[in-house]
Amino acid sequence: KKTIKKDGEPLRNPPNTLPLVGNGIQFLQSRWNLLEWFDRCQRQFGHETLALTVPTLPPGALIQDPKNLEFVFKHEGLFTKGMFVKRRSWDLFGNGIINADGDFWKLQRKAGLSFLTTANLRVLTDVALPQYLSESITELKASTGGQTVDLQHIFHEITTKLMGKMAYNMEMHASDTFSQSFDYASGCTAKRFQNPLWPLTELIFGHQFRKSVSIVKSFGRNIVTSAVHDREKVSSSDTSSSGDAESKLDQISGSLIQSLLDAIGDEQMVADAALTYLSAGRDTTGQALTWTFYLLMKHPLVVTKIREEVQHVLPGTEKEDIDPIKFTPVTMPYTMAVFYEVLRLYPPIPFEIRQCQEDAALPDGTFLPKSSVLVWCLWAMQRSKLTWGDDADEFNPSRFLDQNGKLISRSASEFPVFYGGARTCLGRKMAEAIAVQVIPTMAWLFEFQPAYEGERKSQTSLTLPMEGGLPVFVRENGNRTGEKS
Ligand code: HEM
């Protein structure tokens, strides 16, 4: 029987590997402890590839070297999600793009590309986002009387409304039953990757999970029904429009679901695809904004610099004059650097798993037999001093800027937050467009103070939601000069 080897020898084991159970007990820990354990692996072993063993599961390897990751990105067909990932995430995502390979993946990717066009992103930045941002600002202004506000909810609401309207032509909210059921189901799906006995555990404790999945699936069917209804309405009505901002948004609303219906046809599969896009688009971005403000509250000098950038782009701006449309990745390099630095330390997708479809050899000489499982932990890799220097643990947005203040781009293998190669994230530009408007607008208008003590952690999920949200006190920022108050 072939085994994972390097230079004819088994790989070294990570810390806390036990006889018989290998890393099985380790994986049963909470998400937060697991992230810390992966971080210990990179601190102790650098870029070395390590063995991961869990009884009953295929042999695994933990890769930590960007060179190995580059190889994985270049050989998408060799390292796919495979049955290991699909079996665990099937209930939630079915045939959705995150789970799909081959032609069905291509169809969904093509539909996504026709949704995320430059013209549609322009409607997002010029019409939809300013509108939803302004609704959140109104809510925050109404909360300056000393009550606590959950910023994670505020950001989740912005991204939910955006995806709901633009992708599906539906009004969606972060507090919808669907959203809560999805969060619960996502947590249970993540636990399946940590617990080899999940089929048994769910047989006994899986009632709530099954209920949540059923609510999520029924919501997916609603999205499709509503899209089919929209189609019938459009074909029987006059489609001429005035060309004003509101009608531009109406024209493109639902373009993702319509492209999916065109490309796939089968309504159950379209529902799976729609739910997957919804999760990919709104959760990641909402969470990234939440961690951004968590870090900004700890780093007031960074807030000052963001405000200076606002002043530079909008000179003479007064209290209520802020025009977020002017904030773009080109005009706001410092804000972009802040966003990238947050993504480095708090990657919304903190782990990745792939399965070898054939025997393979990594650039560092590791041999992987067919069906082996390959794991990398972005959370840990992006804290590596070998890749990011001695200050890798510090929040330092300047590492993404050159001497002239221009953004430095890092290779996908060193900075894999948006993945790399053929399956690189389709929504990167959308996420950046949202971040570059939301961060400076909120930082300019408000002062946030923590309404919690200690550190915030992530709850177990497929992405990186903050456990318990981000409760803050809000007050309006009286000082618009960009200087520290
Ligand atoms: C900060 C925000 C975001 C981050 C960090 C992020 C990260 C990622 C990562 C790591 C993957 C690869 C996942 C995997 O296959 O295991 C991915 C895929 C994907 N992302 Fe994003 N994403 C973000 C925002 C968005 C947005 C706004 C959209 C818009 C709809 C989006 C759409 C997608 C899609 C469709 C895929 C699947 C691509 C494929 O398999 O070909 N993402 N993203």
From TrEMBL:
Keywords: Heme, Iron, Metal-binding, Oxidoreductase, Signal. One of its GO terms (molecular function) is oxidoreductase activity, acting on paired donors, with incorporation or reduction of molecular oxygen. InterPro entries: Cyt_P450 (IPR001128), Cyt_P450_E_grp-I (IPR002401), Cyt_P450_sf (IPR036396). Heme binds at residue 425. Its cofactor is heme. SUPFAM superfamilies: Cytochrome P450. Belongs to the cytochrome P450 family. This is Cytochrome P450 86B1. It comes from Podospora australis.
